[in-house]
Amino acid sequence: MTEGPEPDESAEEREEEYDVMISYSHEDSKPVANGLYDELTAYGLDVWYDGVELGIGDNIRSSIDRALTESEHAIILISPSYFEGMSEWELDGLVQKHNKTEENVILPLLHGMEFEELQEKSPSLANIIGDKVNEDNIDEITAKLYDAIKSPNKTPNLDDVEGVNRVELNVTIEDLVDISKGSKVTVEEWRTSGTPHTSGVTAVKLTVEESGLTYTGSNFVGTTKVIKDEQLEGHVSDIEEKSAGSTEFTLRLPESRLNELSDDRNDYKSGFVR
Fold this sequence. Notes:
By secondary structure, the protein is an alpha/beta fold.
């Protein structure tokens, strides 16, 4: 896991508003915080993160205060050491800001803690819905965070997320699809020239959850078969091309889902009967 890029200017020089800040304890949460930063910025969000935004000589308290003022949302990575030192001071400001609006300003995540422990530490914070996060489920959690940030009045998912290994699948469809990074997409029908693991898929029919729209590409199969009973569901992690004639993107989905599919390319050739 890599650190974020080196800053080219200090936090004091930044004037634009951030989509979200990450509040965490360096002592036991930095690898997860780094991962969240990498994933959130990959979705195109502007993230205030002290590993990137605090330069040498910056005043920590004033920089955090500015981040609290300029960020629309705050991810609180709550760990056993979070309530010590500066993190507790940050929390006071976050809670005050959250109480002034009906939107989901605070997006709490538990790391190495149970909800019962949080209830003892901060009953008011425990009343805010959150998920558990670890180094294995960062991509899944990031998709939820992106949805909450883009739809702040929507009630977050209450389900805890267990660690899930995810992979990226290249998807092409012969249509202009209205998607963006973070969009949840279900590829309902598809075909492939090799196997989905190596060659990606050409979508014949897909649905975008946020709009409810269904798009249909060419169903001409040539030497490949249209697979209609093996849906592929995930979140858009990158968009390669979007034009009137074609949309190409990468879909992030559970690795176990791909492992369930046949790795025999003959199974995808035209004329094969399941």
